Amino acid sequence: MTKPIVNEDLCIGCGTCESLCPNVFKMENGKSHVVVEECGDCDCQETVDSCPVSAISLEA
Hints:
Layout: E1 3-6, H1 16-20, E2 25-28, E3 31-34, H2 44-50, E4 56-59
Antiparallel strand pairs: 1-4, 2-3
């Protein structure tokens, strides 16, 4: 499984990741944070592709 990672320096807090994968990403203090380490019932690749500033990546 792949592990999602958020680069908080790049994150602009748009909330797209949380809307696409609410069980994986949560907005806190204006930035996205990973709350579980595996993408289970959502498509984290879609989240990576949808981030407007490329702040999300997947690590094997």
